[in-house]
Amino acid sequence: MYRILVCDDEKDIRRALGIYLAGEGYDVTETASGQGALEAMKQGHFDLVLMDIMMPGMDGIETTIQLRKFSNVPVIFLTAKSEDMDKVLGLNIGADDYVTKPFNTMELLARVKAQLRRYTTLNGTTSVTMSVGGLLLDDDAKKVTLFGEALSLTPTEYDILKVLMQSPGKVFSSKELYQMIRNEDPFGAEASIPVHIRHLREKIEPDPTNPRLLKVVWGKGYKLES
Fold it and tell me: Is 178 found in the same domain as 117?
């Protein structure tokens, strides 16, 4: 059974999410604060976190920054419609997806299932090893190294890098990357891909402003130099 941590300072939202998720067979733990979420994560294993951005004290952004220091668990932000900049910032600091409040139940559950499916895949047993320009991806160990140094990637970053490494030199549009890592049409959600690309570039490039591996082909997409 998958364990999901719900972090939101609004009791009614926590309760509603708990009902929806429990109805799908998930084991749900609730917390009302960022600090509470960090403590829960350190005390037990969770497969996914639903994180509100606007919370008193430690907000969702700072909580995720702290969380990423010790965990790569998928994080889905719960955002208000007015928080567009927060969405971008959230993806930059390691969030994997977001759902806008008031959320559509079916959309929320679909995004949860998609993240869990990818996270489970990262713990699968298919053995594939790829090497491009000093990058080594071991899909059996779910490990990426750069010139022998281990990289800490989120599930989304890992999936994007894997697609690019499978076809060095090939250009993928944001829509194509989204479809390949999610197995679904983006319906506009491919706008999150450039943010993940930028965050991935910061981890694999010595100088992210002058990348040697992960290149942009203007107007067309992204490629990994062979």
Answer: no
